[in-house]
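Per reviewer request, we include the raw input and output of the structure prediction for the construct analysed in the revised manuscript.
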Amino acid sequence: MTNQPLQATITQRGVIFEPRGEILLVKRATDGEWELPGGRVDRHEDAREALAREILEETSLTPDTVTPVHTTTWLNSDGNGRFAVYYYCLAEDQSVTLSDEHQAFEWAQPSKICARLTPPQQAAVAESVVYHNGSSALHGSNVS
């Protein structure tokens, strides 16, 4: 039993695969860091609807949100609690229009993007690749 429960902001991100197995990364305008698209859940908002809203706002995409693949908690540099859920998503459309929150985007193979991501996002990509390969094996395609 913990002595002090985590009070946290909830964040959700999508590991969005396109048909060739590439994943979408977006580059934040504030600090130039790369990340998976997504954002915070608003009060009284359904979790999947929140993720769909954030991805649409940031990228103009409407991917299929398939399943959660990774969760994590941490305290940020200000000591504020964070709880993140990462979802495996599929997008047929690869035409991205960025919001002002991001300055660039890239579709890339999972093996080429992980070095640019934080450890929790790297773990989410790894879990998503496992899920993708498991579901793609039925159709005869794999990514790495």
